[in-house]
Amino acid sequence: MLILLPPSEGKAERGTSRARRLSFPELASPREKVLDALVSLCHTPEARDVLGLSDGQAGEIERNRALPAARTLPVADLYTGVLYDNLGLGALSPEARRRADRRIIVFSGLWGLLRPSDRVPPYRLSMGVRLPPMGGLAAFWRPSIGAVLDATKGLVVDLRSATYTAAWQPGERGVAVRVLREAAGKRTVVSHMAKATRGVVARSLVETPDRPRTAGDLADLLAGLGHRVELAAPAGGNRPRTLDVIVGE
To answer: What's residue 249's pLDDT?
Structure first.
């Protein structure tokens, strides 16, 4: 089972070590191209507009300039925000943390794919950015990421946002998790609460040693772990199933 996560805009302020570690060595060449392009961009006046930064985020440009020699920290400690707070990688048991490192893949506009134990410096680059000279990063990364993940096997639990699903789709072996809020007999798609719920779902899936092999197995497992879920009918056309996680007010 693979669990796909987006990164978060919120990140730790600084790294703690000179050591850098990256899984998926097949991505070394595109990583180098994106890193070089990002550093070059951040030496130009266009950087703030291209990266979508506000006046108060100008410090992110300086941080990106320093990336080649910046100190690193584990991905498990890098990302902050609602999803990662609820996932709580740092508070997992040793066994669950090892499972997390095998199961979780974080999509990144800069690094492509990351495991929780990888070590990288804090950075700022969304997959939605059109980075000169390669253009849209989702389209740039798609062939390289596809070559890596198409070769894997097993169920794919997709907890990513739309910006990151554009970089790779798992097809029929995927299950896209959607969060619905139920109130007064009506269900609505939510955003902020969805991040928290996806973090809780991901935590449930790394705390259990069970390995669901089908969408039905996943629905049964999450229901047994206390989540209220409903599995949609197969979409067909090599598209992922949808699993609704239903939360109250």
So the answer is: 62
